[in-house]
Amino acid sequence: MQNVTRRAARLTLAALLGAAAAAHAVPMPAFEDPKLAEWARLANAEMERYLANPQGYFAMPAQAGASCELPPEVLSRIIGVRLPGVAMSEEERKVWARTTRGMPGMKPMEYADVVVRPTKAECSDGKPAGSWAGWVEFTMVNNAPGMVIRTRMRKYIEVAVAPDGQRNGAVMERMTQISHTTDWADPATADLMRKNPGPSATSATFVYNEPGQHEATNKGLTLSRVFVSGSHGGADVTTTVTLPIGPKHFKTVMYNGTQKANEFSYKDGRPHGLQVGYPYRTGMGIDVPASSICWENGEQIKTTQCNAN
């Protein structure tokens, strides 16, 4: 009788473990933080829905389901996409300057052909008044020396907003890449690339975050799956978490599947502290070696002991 009971217990445990494994559409790390654990559960559930119907999951409605006339500057803050005619903010200009330092000829990224279809839009006297939800489709245009890269994206957003359009509550975004093209200035290069097209890729990204306090960065979680076609392709699944450290100081940790891939820290928008890369193998079979770099206020420091904090 005792053996039967033990056998039944083992079978029950195996069933529970199997059910738990089946509940995860893609591999993700486990989190002790309750908020990150909840976001991971929600993101994986959405990923499962996407994988069951990749074509239909990101289908955007033909018409808006709600109406709320807002100034372009305010709507741009809500949707996270700069509408035509809206200038870059001072913070965006600073970030762009830091990102493209040492890359002459790079022009600020532009957004083109923006389509906004709200499904829920609360407003009063021409200002947001509560929450906003809806679809956004847009093209990111990157002008680089000798080429123009255009990436068409589509996303669905649910967010709480302040009257000025600033996000002031929990944020959820689901996003996919629709197309990606490169126009080459050199005719010979354009002809070569046309004759030798690279593999195609599909993606699904799920973002959850909440506002930080006292200028602290948002705590957040992003789950992404990129599938690359071809004989050397495959699926890569990454989870990235953002953890506030202090005012304008935060850390990001990225996982490839369940393996920790890297840890970065930033202060005042610049890399600051020890950047650690852990050895891992990608979903496409590429082995990534370990690495470590010390940063101090955006500058790489050659040292054997990183004391930046």
Which helices and strands appear, and what pairs or packs with what?
Elements: H1 2-22, H2 34-52, H3 54-57, H4 72-79, H5 90-99, E1 110-124, E2 127-144, E3 147-161, E4 167-184, H6 187-195, E5 201-210, E6 219-228, E7 234-246, E8 249-256, E9 259-267, E10 270-271, E11 273-277, E12 280-281, E13 287-288, E14 291-296, E15 299-301
Antiparallel strand pairs: 1-2, 2-3, 3-4, 4-5, 5-6, 6-7, 7-8, 8-9, 9-10, 9-11, 11-14, 12-13, 14-15
Shape designation: globular
Structural class: alpha+beta
Please, what is the average pLDDT? 85
What is the helix/strand order?
A: HHHHHEEEEHEEEEEEEEEEE
| Overall radius of gyration | 22 Å
Report the helical percentage.
Answer: 10-25%
Number of strands: 15
Estimate the strand proportion: 35-45%
State the end-to-end CA separation: 61 Å
Per DSSP, the total helix count is 6
Sheet with most strands: 13 strands, antiparallel
Low-confidence stretches: 1-6, 8-23
